[in-house]
Amino acid sequence: MVMDAGVDFRALGRLKPLSWLAPDQIKRLAMEAHLIRTIRGEPIFTGGEEAKRIFVLLSGAAKLQLDNAGQRVLVGLLGPGEVFGLTALLGQPTHVFKCEAFSDCSSAALAPETFIDIVLGVPLERAKHVLDMTMGRWWSMVVRYSSFVGLGLRERLASALLEIASKFGVQDARGTLLTVRLTHADLAELVGASRQRTTEQLSEFERERAILRDGRRLIVVPARMAKMSQLTHFDPSRNRVLEHASK
Questions:
Q1: CATH of 2-139, one of 3.30.470.10, 2.60.120.10, 2.130.10.10, 3.30.420.40
Q2: In 166, 179, 236, 245, which residue has its Cα 20 to 30 A from 218's Cα atom?
Q3: Burial letters for 89-125: b for 16+ Cβ neighbours within 10 Å, e otherwise?
């Protein structure tokens, strides 16, 4: 991968997805960006790498992948004009996906705060709140369903329970108490398994003390549940999943 200062504003201006921007915005993006040239097979960024740039693909093709328990999952192909590296806009510290050059390609790389200032004219911190409210949950779904490929029911169900705990849980001395009531049928539908197999797996989690029962309510024990899933870190002080495993 080769990085140069500056991008030809005419190359940016020819990209259809950016055609709605004013000429002065295109020129500012070109001045602030670094040109990255990547040959086929080389990474533009990898999963677990610090998310400090946003990218615009100028030419060629790139692919988003998820390394999942030794299996590489192709999430999608990117074409010219597409913006990627969205983790940096959502305030997450590291990239979840790996982005690799599918063909020789070139990209414009910018600091996320610079990109948002030029495109929207607002501080990045304000934009993050809007992005988190809108695309944040959809991003989580993309990550979850991508990570499910190649996983067994045990790992899928553990990951789903941790995600539910991060959204609908309150801290308890025993773990994270779920405030939403889910039937076994609901959980089975969520992870794409039969109700019977889901019930059997939940019983196994109970035997392993990864989940506890409080009457009809469910308590997730994050430290134990995380070992059974592809999620590597659940922060009980913030009651949320912070990052996904990159293997």
A1: 2.60.120.10
A2: 245
A3: bbbbebbbbbbbbbeebbbbbbbbbbbbbbbeeeebe
